[in-house]
Design brief:
The complex is a heterodimer. By secondary structure, chain A is an alpha/beta fold. Chain A contains 14 helices and 18 strands.
Chain lengths: 556, 825
């Protein structure tokens, strides 16, 4: 074992405090990293399970104003003559109660409801393509946080994504990822086979760092050894031969402990992956009810919609609906690759030690064609179109994850999980001449999970607690939405929604109160968390651009 | 019974005196007989362990047992258990150890020939040779001027019975003596399955010409053997049967059988590449006509002419790493690329916004990387090259000017300069994090770089930042603003100094400032540095300057920062981490009593830096590190893990020898490795997003996921062509394992599992020591003497050249390269 000399360990410790960032301690024996770690990230809680995080990065900048819609603000309609979704005359956004879930009925398309879906807080509504968020919202498992951004917001995709992922806005010299630092703080980053894992083409910045190599998987069915020849028998022969080689004793060298440990993790992970059911044939996860009251589909297919639609056959919806309607399926047919990746991420969180997993959805940069041309004549706004298609993925994702981690829960239950959406910035309140919107600033973050402090009804059918932040009528979550184009909510030419929440406060809350970091750990994971002028931990003014923020929203 | 044991180990020949193994003893009863169990821990670099015993104090030790299995012995005891036991460990020769560490660190791993050569000439001579790089001849970038016949040999499966010959563009080639035989290797004795492969008979009916090759005919003027060869004349790129010269082989080939294709071609300086292959995924050979397969020269030509893609640049870099005799030079260039980080994608996006359409932004961005790389290359060839020289090249590089946003930074009028370059100059390029500077210094330094921008200059002015924009137009007749648009100007993008963007005020670097913003005296070097640095005032005041003189701010700053003790420390630590091991720290206190070999080495490097004239000469610092006791001995040997680049290149080199027929036993076209490096931890050469460079240490690269990629890579590299999984390493990454083994063991030796195992262990783990590799040897011999199904099958029972024999030796090599030890360097 590589034993750190007592002298140099103490010299480190006194220089930086014993609970210092593990990242800065070199030569800490691997088995001690866990013991030295503070907090409980990655440690099983009282129910015996580890609390986990799944992030969805919506790359391209999601138009928050058409996601959680400030229906009660007339400027929304005057700024977006083509893109605005009309208020529902029968169930207007001004009503108080639970969120609306419009059942499709026998012949209409799933997303045929052409109005905003009232969230019941008297002000806001969801884009109709997000209808599957309503059941999650009404169960109290969804927080919709509007007006989220950061100081001196960049409108460059590249820079702003980097700031979100490193947790260090305006610091282009940032070297590693926010969730990477969280994994390092857990003490497990170099010892456990899977801590953070993304499913995509390569490891994104949010999990990158030089002291631990997090895993990124492109195709999980590809995760196995090769052999010469490439047959099962030869593979078995190779594995059998590697085993005594891995156990052989050698002299001490600096990296031998790490190699030994990671080889052990490798063979463990290979065995694990061989058992995990990533193949399409095992994609049998379904809703436990007839989804959307679609009894026809349920009867024809033996159950509710498939939670991870990866083929047309597994894409629930009204096959009987006439014509080639895009909304006859619950998710767009172009989204199968995304749901394959989401399925892989979910299976990993549910069946392994992985603490954090993540998937990206591209395509949110809707400078044009945010609205479907056919709708403009009908005055239905961006009810269909590219943005609507993307929102359907997100809506179904939250609904499906709630079902998957409840019905199929193994090592991770919905109550142990938080799902969070990230997006680099929002889009202009005023639409452009191409039927789209341009880069702006604040946008929406969604936080979902069994432990989320969302909607609660009161005994009379009203609202005891809302799940909407920063987009409500008077008296809702501290800062009212000031209506009108010259009001304080829209800055600079009335185009950019003003933030009142810093994304780091949202993530900070989740990392501390859900994942289990201590406050000192959080201060290291998110640089500046402890400084008053950044006002991340509590309500105040962010000094970089003198903007008032609410501090941490109490989402978990 | 008296049990007297002095368990003392006395080193016989150790690379590092004092690392003697100590014995622990236990008494065991085996079959009713008392036995003494002796156990010890393996020591580094040991050739043989020997147990010795002496009957009593002062009496001589005699050898008792040699070579323990698994580092333990049991010894039977007589009626009286007295005696002294010790284990003697004969270490690897100190020079051999030093030589292998050199090959692992200043080279991309050993080749079998290099191992022999360094053993022969000695590590001292090898070190001198590599440091004095300009004395080592190297012509990899030079296209072979005098044409000759060159042989190609490839193996693969018989995926179909149609053989295609074509080129990937217009061009011509001479071919002769095409042979296709069963099995692996062709010594000329097996029947040729092709008809008229020597072209002695008219082409038809054996060969059919498609329309793009219809002018092909036999030639009597350029002939390899016999009276005729094939002169292949291509007017258009070929792809398959209808665009190739092809033959249908009868009787048909078998898809499960391995075959060997060999042929000779006449070298030529042409861009069109030749392909000879079977239909399907079996045997395939594609290469340029430059004279050696996978020659960097044509890629170098493309890079010089500005026509290269990013994939070309990476392939060139990798091919040089594999092939160059100037290995240290290649290692240092990669070090500089990874230290002065620039990002291809950002440069490409910059040119994308300058009015260029695809593929020009990519070509221009590749060119900036190439020019930067070439300038370092030339600088490193000068014996007196200093860190300052290299730093200047980076500052002047358009890629760097774009990457850290200097290109848009303004200091004129009320503009506030962009801090990125200034910060990284302090934090990542010169001083190291929080080492001698603070935020105020970054602000001051940021003003220095305002005005450092780019311009489209005449080629002759590429390195003249005061020259005006080129007025040489593609189409001079164009009117209006389009005349001077970027796409209409003939020129190259280079560093241009814009006087109108510069902050001309005086600047005060490395001063102390009080809380009200008033400037105090200069900063002083902290005490911990000790003499001669401690206490020195290292401030720099740049006077107000205007016009072109403002550019001098930058050069003054570079010259000032390049040789400060902070830079000396930071760069010395970086070099030591690259070359010795990862445990060097920043921030040593050189004045306190406690020290370590690492601290002392850093201090010596800094002293050498300080006292060389001019300061900061690279070669003396390298000499200091590479001759240090830490480097030479077990403290340096095998103490690092290979990065993905080192792993991929090292894999190719480990089994690379020239074979009798002129081919190389281990080849890659360079392109195939980029995918692996990306999957093994997102190592993308020339395109790193974060400015801190790819990690050097193991933790940055070693995880279960990345190890899986490494293991797949070595197996894929060693696979014969056409096997599923070959794509991981690239179809053009080929290793002829039989060829390497035969070159050392001969035809009989490759049937002997023991000798094959010994040779592989020697080539793959030259620094481990024979005695420490017993476990691996056992595993390897077992593998070689077993079928896939697990039944016993001695290697000697297989026919050399058969598919079964070939697969088994490939599998054994892949097995050994999949072990933990092969991850190390």
């Amino acid at each position: 074992m590589n034993i750190l000399s007592r002298r140099s360990f103490l010299s480190h410790a006194t220089r930086m405090g014993l609970g210092a960032a593990l990242a800065s301690l070199t030569d800490v024996p691997l088995v001690l990293q866990r013991a030295l770690a503070e907090g409980s990230i990655g440690r099983p809680g009282p129910n015996g399970r580890v609390r986990k995080l799944l992030f969805l990065f919506l790359r391209g900048a999601n138009d928050g104003l058409n996601t959680v819609i400030p229906v009660g603000d007339p400027a929304y309609y005057s700024s977006r003559p083509h893109l605005a979704i009309p208020d529902d005359p029968l169930q207007p956004a001004a009503r108080i109660g639970p969120a609306i879930f419009p059942e499709s009925g026998n012949t209409a398309g799933i997303y045929a409801h052409p109005y905003t879906l009232s969230l019941g807080n008297g002000f806001a509504g969801l884009h109709p393509s997000l209808k599957f968020l309503s059941p999650v919202y009404n169960a109290g498992d969804l927080a919709l946080i509007h007006r989220v951004g950061y100081p001196r917001q960049s409108r460059s995709h590249f820079d702003s994504q980097a700031y979100w992922e490193t947790g260090a806005p305006s610091s282009s010299g940032a070297k590693d990822g926010l969730l990477y630092r969280a994994m390092l703080e857990s003490g497990l980053a170099n010892t456990s086979p899977l801590t953070g894992v993304t499913i995509g083409t390569s490891l994104p910045m949010i999990l990158r760092g030089s002291k631990a190599a997090m895993m990124n998987i492109g195709d999980p069915t590809r995760y196995g050894l090769l052999s010469i020849p490439n047959t099962a028998a030869a593979k078995a022969k190779l594995s059998a031969a590697l085993e005594p080689a891995d156990r052989a004793r050698f002299a001490e060298k600096r990296d031998r402990d790490l190699l030994e440990l990671q080889y052990r993790n490798l063979s463990g992970t290979l065995d694990l992956f061989a058992d995990l059911k990533f193949a399409e044939a095992d994609n049998t996860f379904r809703d436990d009810v007839a989804t959307d009251a679609d009894t026809d589909w349920a009867n024809a297919n033996g159950g509710g919609y498939f939670l991870f639609p990866t083929t047309n056959d597994k894409n629930g919806g009204w096959k009987r609906a006439s014509g080639n309607r895009a909304d006859k399926y619950v998710v767009p047919t172009s989204s199968y690759d995304y749901f394959t990746r989401l399925k892989t991420a979910s299976i990993l969180l549910n069946n392994t030690d992985a603490i954090v997993s993540g998937v990206s959805i591209d395509g949110w940069d809707t400078h044009s064609n945010q609205v479907d041309d056919r709708n403009t004549a009908a005055g239905l706004g961006a009810h269909t179109g590219s943005h609507a298609g993307l929102l359907r993925r997100v809506g179904w994702t939250m609904y499906a994850l709630q079902k998957y981690f409840t019905k199929y829960s193994s090592r991770c239950h919905w109550d142990d999980l938080v799902v969070v959406t990230l997006s680099e910035f929002g889009r202009t309140s005023i639409e452009n001449s191409d039927g789209g919107t341009d880069h702006a600033e604040a946008s929406v973050m969604m936080v979902a999970g069994g432990g989320v402090r969302g909607f609660q009804p009161d005994a009379l059918g009203g609202v005891k607690r809302t799940g909407v932040w920063n987009c409500g009528g008077d008296g809702d979550h501290v800062v009212p939405w000031v209506t009108g184009p010259t009001g304080s909510m829209f800055r600079a030419s009335g185009r950019y929604l003003q933030r009142n929440t810093d994304y780091r406060s949202v993530l900070g809350r989740i990392i501390r109160d859900h994942l289990g970091a201590t406050q000192p750990q959080l201060d290291r994971i998110i640089p500046g968390y402890a400084s008053p002028e950044d006002s991340l931990a509590s309500k105040g003014v962010q000094s970089r651009d003198n903007t008032s923020v609410i501090g941490e929203p109490e989402v978990v | 019974m008296g049990l007297v044991m002095a368990l003392v180990a006395v080193p016989a020949v150790f690379a590092d005196p004092g690392s003697a193994p100590s014995l622990s003893a236990s008494l065991q009863i085996v079959d009713g007989v008392e036995r003494l169990g002796l156990r010890f821990n393996p020591q580094p670099a040991i050739e043989a362990y020997e147990l010795q015993a002496s009957p009593g104090l002062g009496l001589p030790f005699q050898p008792v047992l040699v070579g323990p299995a698994d580092f333990q012995w049991t010894v039977s005891l007589g009626s009286e258990i007295t005696g002294l036991y010790r284990v003697e460990a004969r270490g690897l020769d100190a020079d051999v150890l030093w030589g292998t560490t050199l090959l692992h660190r200043i080279a991309y791993g050993p080749t079998p020939d290099e191992l022999d050569r360094v053993r022969q000439i000695g590590p001292e001579a090898y070190l001198q040779e590599q440091i004095g790089v300009e004395e080592v001849p190297e012509t990899l970038d030079v296209v072979n001027a005098s044409p000759r016949w060159q042989k190609v040999v490839v193996t693969g499966t018989g995926s179909s019975s149609k053989l295609y010959i074509y080129m990937d563009g217009a061009g011509d080639a001479y071919l002769d003596d095409l042979r296709l035989v069963t099995g692996v290797g062709d010594d000329g004795s097996k029947p040729n399955l092709l008809r008229n492969g020597d072209f002695e008979a008219p082409l038809a009916p054996d060969w059919t010409l498609s329309s793009n090759l219809v002018s092909s005919a036999r030639s009597a003027s350029i002939v390899h053997s016999g009276a005729a060869s094939l002169h292949l004349v291509s007017t258009e790129a070929g792809e398959s049967q209808s665009s190739s010269l092809f033959q249908t082989i009868t009787p048909p080939l078998s898809a499960s059988q391995t075959y060997t294709l060999s042929y000779w071609y006449w070298t030529a300086d042409q861009s069109a590449r030749l392909t000879i292959r079977l239909s399907g995924s079996g045997i395939s050979s594609t290469h340029d006509l430059s004279g050696s397969q996978n020659n960097p020269a044509p890629l170098f030509g493309k890079l010089k002419s500005g026509q290269a893609t990013l994939a070309d640049l990476r392939a060139w870099h990798v091919l040089r790493a594999v092939q160059s005799p100037r290995q240290l030079h290649e290692v240092l260039r990669q070090f500089l690329e990874n230290h002065f980080v620039t990002e291809f994608t950002k440069t490409r996006d910059y040119f994308d916004g300058r009015g260029y359409d695809s593929p020009l932004p990519e070509r221009l961005a590749v060119r900036t990387e190439f020019v930067e790389n070439q300038r370092w290359r030339e600088a490193l060839l000068k014996p007196g090259v200093t860190f300052h020289d290299l730093l200047k090249i980076s500052a002047e590089s358009p890629a760097m000017i774009v990457y850290l946003d200097t290109v848009t930074s303004r200091g004129d009028g009320k503009y506030v300069a962009n801090e990125n370059y200034a910060r990284e100059l302090c934090e990542l390029f010169c001083f190291g994090v929080d080492n001698g500077y603070d935020q105020q210094d970054i602000v001051e330094i940021s003003k220095v770089w305002t005005g450092w921008r780019l311009e489209l200059l005449d080629a002759a002015n590429e390195f003249n930042p005061l020259a005006a924009r080129s007025t040489n137009y593609v189409n001079p007749a164009v009117t209006g603003s389009a005349l001077n648009s970027n796409t209409n100007v003939v020129g190259v993008w280079g560093f241009k100094y814009r006087t109108d963007r510069h902050n001309n005020a005086a600047k005060h670097l490395f001063h102390e400032w009080d809380t009200s913003g008033a400037r105090l005296g200069g900063k002083r070097v902290p005490d911990r540095f000790g003499p001669p640095w401690a206490g020195r005032d290292y401030s720099l005041t740049l006077p107000a300057r205007s016009g072109n003189a403002g550019m001098q701010d930058g050069y003054d700053t570079l010259r000032h920062m390049a040789d400060q003790p902070f830079t000396q420390e930071y760069i010395s630590v970086k070099l030591c981490r690259l070359l010795v091991h990862d445990g060097f720290e920043h921030g040593y206190d050189f004045t306190d009593a406690e020290t370590s070999p690492e601290e002392e080495l850093i201090h010596r490097c800094m002293t050498v830096w300080e006292t060389s004239a001019p300061k900061g000469q690279l070669r003396p610092i390298l000499q200091t590190i590479l001759r240090s006791d830490l480097f030479r001995g077990n403290g340096g040997s095998l103490q690092k893990v290979k990065t993905p680049l080192e792993f991929a290149v090292g894999t190719i080199r480990a089994l690379r020898v020239p074979l009798a027929d002129g081919s190389s036993s281990s080849e890659t076209d360079g392109y195939g490795l980029a995918n692996f490096m990306n999957r093994a931890g997102r190592m993308r050469l020339f395109d790193r997003v974060e400015p801190d460079g790819y990690p050097e240490d193991a933790a940055g690269w070693v995880s279960a996921g990345t190890l899986a990629e490494r293991l797949r890579f070595v197996t894929s590299a060693l696979m014969p062509a056409g096997m599923t999984g070959k794509d991981d390493a690239g179809a053009n990454t080929r290793v002829n394992v039989l060829g390497v083994l035969q070159s050392r063991l001969g035809a009989e030796g490759v049937r002997d599992s023991g000798r094959v195992a010994d040779l592989l262990l020697q080539m793959l783990f030259p620094a481990e020591g024979k005695a420490n590799l017993e476990a691996y040897r056992k595993v390897a011999v077992g593998f070689l003497d077993t079928t896939d199904g697990g039944t016993a099958s001695p290697l000697s029972s297989l026919t050399v050249g058969s598919t079964a024999h070939d697969q088994r030796i490939r599998g054994a090599a892949a097995l050994l390269m999949s072990t933990q030890r092969f991850q190390e360097q």
